[in-house]
Specification:
Layout (H helix, E strand, L loop, with lengths): L1 H9 L8 E3 L17 E3 L5 E3 L7 H4 L16 E3 L2 H4 L13
Antiparallel strand pairs: 1-4, 2-3
Bound molecules: iron/sulfur cluster.
Protein name: Zinc/iron-chelating domain-containing protein
């Protein structure tokens, strides 16, 4: 519950520029700490959100940072070093030209 509160309060900050990957629709983040009432699963076990277009920033940006990734085993997103991305970790600086 404390982690959910932290995610809620930091959800207006930008997504870390070192985030890579994409959502694999596992639905793991939608069960933190309890299954969301808007969580749905299709016949193939892929999750979806019944209020996707108006979902809150804490859901929209999950996982915003490596420290806030509470489902690293399941999540399709991952974080790399700033050197690998070549950008400012705040995401405020543009990427360097090759
Ligand atoms: S845990 Fe990651 S991959 Fe799974 S539904 Fe959430 S954002 Fe998508």
């Amino acid at each position: 519950m404390l982690n959910k509160l932290k995610r809620l309060t930091t959800s207006l900050l930008p997504i870390d520029a070192t985030r890579q990957g994409e959502c694999n629709r596992c639905g793991a983040c939608c069960k933190l700490p309890y299954p969301c009432p808007f969580l749905r699963f299709d016949d193939q076990g892929l999750s979806s959100c019944a209020v996707y277009h108006v979902r809150p920033p804490s859901c929209r940006k999950y996982p915003r940072t490596a420290a806030e990734n509470l489902t690293p085993e399941q999540c399709g997103f991952y974080f790399v070093s700033t050197e690998e991305v070549g950008t400012d970790p705040t995401g405020l600086e543009p990427a360097a030209s090759p």
